[in-house]
Each structure stands twice: as structure tokens, then as C-alpha cells.
Amino acid sequence: xxxxLSEREKLVLYCMVxxxxxxxxxxxxxxxxxxxxxxxxxxxxxxxxFCKRVRIPHLxxxxxxxxxxxxxxxxxxxxxxIRLITGNKLVRDHKEVFWAGSEYTQAVxxxxxxxxxxxxxxxxxxxxxxxxxxxxxxxxxIFLTFPFEISKVPLFFDFEPxxxxxxxxxxxxxxxxxxxxxxxxxxxxxxxxxxKRVYHGLINHPEMTDTELSKEISVSQxxxxxxxxxxxxxxxxxxxxxPDLGKxxxxxxxxxxxxLNLHLPEKQRTxxxxxxxxxxxxxxxxIGGDDVAAITAYEDFETYRRCMNSFSEIYKHDxxxxxxxxxxxxxxxxxxxxxxxxxxxxxxKVLGVKIETPxxxxx
Length: 363
Prior knowledge:
Elements: H1 7-18, H2 24-31, H3 35-47, E1 51-57, E2 66-74, H4 80-93, E3 97-102, E4 106-113, H5 116-132, E5 136-147, E6 151-156, H6 160-166, H7 193-204, H8 210-217, H9 221-233, E7 237-243, E8 252-259, H10 266-279, E9 284-288, E10 291-298, H11 301-318, E11 326-331, E12 336-340, H12 344-351
Antiparallel strand pairs: 1-7, 2-4, 2-5, 3-4, 3-12, 6-9, 8-10, 8-11, 9-10
């Protein structure tokens, strides 16, 4: 069994997640620990696989139009291994898909799509093939779109609220923020070839230092650092530290899709969603039109059941949803990750660069 984290290790991990760009010296100030202690703990957390760094592209700044969420319902009679042979190839070929997880009778995938046509084309191909092979049950495939210009993404794999609750770092109250939605577009065609290579390299190799990346893509370290600072300032990308929930003792991921009651004033809907998210903070949430999609991690089934009781009391009393939310429960031990924060292919497609993407490695 994985050795549990000490209180100091939890503190450093929490601060790394909260401030992913902080240096060891800044983390030492955040945690009131010695610099040498922070450096040793950070190294140990990475070596033991408790976390990894990713860079998330804000492709909406380059004209990409939407985030798409799709969930699938499969027949229980089809062995998972047989279905994954088809599913793995499709997910690998679909550049827009950056996150996808599957279990015996269900799956969820997330896409960053340049336009609705690209997103729908991917889903149509999967649906047609899965239907022909008899994989889908009567509920089939549900496809949700969240156009950046008119949607909100309050949580995009943001683990800070969850860890704050899990590690008992309650601190100040928090509300649902939002990742940048619609940004002033950057003309990707106006980026130089070097600029495209650096941007793609930053996304493709998030664990590399500027010096390491400069050698990987044959661009000077000075240029890499200058462009990285430029892209970060322009909110064209951001760094994130992703903890391994399984190693932290979480047992379940739950996907929810709910329909909002649009008769309620928007201010009231926002207040209720904040209240619901405070019970167990999701790691992902998207809101568009009357659709809400969320992914939440739970330590165990008892915690899940307790939270569900609290959720139900609130949303039924306030009548925020139309009908019962549709819910999929995944065991982290059984769930197969087909893609996990693989952004290189869609970035390469948007920028028009063709550079080999590192093979997806499962934790």
C-alpha cells in the first residue's frame, strides 16, 4: 500500500496545487518551512508519483470555439477489453479529445474543439462505429457543447478547493471562479514558426525547464523564456499541478449532468451552485445554457452518500434542476484512462504544426 503523506507533505502539495508557478523559495514562504525541506518534499512528491505538472492551452484565445463533453452508455454484455480496442484507436485519432475515461458500462470524454463541426464529426464517428458493433445500450451517447463565448467553466481540473477540504485547510470562503472564457483572439497565423514550436513544446513537455525544452525543440533558452512569459501574460496557457487522487486515498470519480431551471434568476442559480459546490468541490464544472456538467472526487462511498443527501436537500428545496441529474459513478481502481490531459495533438492542429506527441503514460 502507498505510504500516506505526512502533514508537511500535504501542506507542500496543497501549496504547489494552489500556486503551480511558485519556486521552492516562494513555497517555503507559503508554508513557513525551510527551503531545503520544501525542495526535498517537492522532489519526493514527484518521484512517488503524487503529482505531475501540465500546461493547459487556452485555445479560445486562438479562435477555438467550444468545450464539448460526451458521455456513453454501454451494454454490460460487451467485455471492456473488446470495446477498448476500438475506443483507444478512436480517442487517439481524435486530436480534439484531451481527457477520456472508461469503465465497463460507461465512459466520459472531454474535447477542446476549434468548431462545432470538428466536435460533432468525432462523436458521429464513434457513435456510428459503436452502434454497428452493438456496444451501446438504449441510452446511447449524450453530447453536450459549451461555447466559450456564452458559457462558464468555473473549474477546469482545479484541485485546490478539493485538497483544501480534504486536508482540512478550510481557510477563507471560496466561490466558483471561472477560467478565461472568451478571450480576444490571437491570430495563430501571425505567430512565427519559432513561436508555434515554443508554444507547442510548452504544452507537450510541461515538466521540462526552459533550458531542457530549448534543447528538445532546438530553440535558444532565452527565446523559450521570453515567449513563455509572453504566452502566460496573454493568458494563452497556464500551468497546473495535477495530484494523483488514487494515491491520495480517493476511491471514486462521479460525473453529473443536470438541467438547470431557467425560471430561477441567474443570481439565485449561481448562489445555489456555490452552495452545492461547497459541500464537495468538483474538480471540473462547465455551465452553458441549461446544462451543467461536473466531475467530483470522493474518498469513499460513505462520503459520497453523505454528500448526495446534502445535495438533494438543497437542490430539491430550491428547485434549481429540472428532474434528477444523470449520474455516472467510476471506481478509480477500475477506471481505464484513455487520455489524461493530452493537449499536444489539438494544439498542433490549431497551429498547423506536426511534431510528435509524447506517448500517454498512465499513472
